[in-house]
Amino acid sequence: MMFGRTERGKPPVEPVTLKILVAGGFGVGKTTLVGAVSEIRPLRTEELLTEAGRPIDDTSGVEGKNTTTVAMDFGRITLREDLVLYLFGTPGQERFWFMWDELSEGALGAVVLADTRRLEDCFAAVDYFERRSIPFVVGVNCFEGSSRYPEQAVRQALDLDEDVPLVLCDARDRTSVKEVLIGVVQHAMAYAAERRQSVTT
After folding, report:
1. CA-to-CA distance for 27 and 191, rounded, in angstroms?
2. Which family does it belong to (predicted)?
3. CB neighbours of 42 closer than 8 A, spacing ≥ 6?
4. What is the C-alpha to C-alpha distance for residues 44 and 70, in angstroms, rounded to an integer?
5. The whole model's pTM is what?
């Protein structure tokens, strides 16, 4: 690179950076999702679960989990040369929800991860983004051994609006997660365009 130009003679591309939240219940796979796609070593704020937290932290269904996010997870993925996503994983436990307002500041959209064995755990995240008009996609994390349900049944259980995308995903798989994130960006852009149109008409 010389004088701000690449070797091919093209000016360097200044990428657009977008902020995406990853939310959902305790143990649903948020930290795993961020780690699966991040091109940098993800920043994690995990602490060991303790006996003191046992009465508060419901580990049914995720008995093998021994750590929890107490502030956020952070990762970055370049989708295209001109598009970079910054991922912020929110803490799943109710006592850390005060962090959500800080983390959601300036977010383009969100992924709400859901586990069909514990769907009620993502109700709070769905409500949060609906109330704040932050566009979101629901990603059903397909855990091994969990039952598969028709999309419409999951939609009804979560009381989702028809325009909220719902996709199956594997939070451990980079390609699967990348598709979910592309879906968030597309949904958020369509949502923004729709709102602009409603303002001008």
Report:
1. 29
2. Belongs to the GPN-loop GTPase family.
3. 31, 34, 35, 73, 74, 75
4. 9
5. 0.79
3-state secondary structure of 78: strand
Tokens found for residue 96: 């850390």
- What are 89's strand-pairing partners? 22, 73
Query: Cα dist. 41→34, 35, 123 in Å?
Result: 10, 8, 30
Dist. CA 48–CA 105, nearest whole Å? 28
Amino acid at 182: I
Q: Are 174 and 87 in contact (CB under 8 A)?
A: no
Q: Which helix (H) or strand (E) element contains residue 59?
A: none
The tens digit of pLDDT for each residue in 33-72 reads 999 999 998 887 655 545 544 444 455 555 554 555 445 7
Backbone angles phi, psi at 74, to 5 degrees: -135, 135
Task: Give the span between the Cα atoms of 120 and 126, in whole angstroms.
Answer: 10
Cα angle vertex 142, ends 137, 147, to 5°?
Answer: 115
Please name the amino acid found at residue 96. F
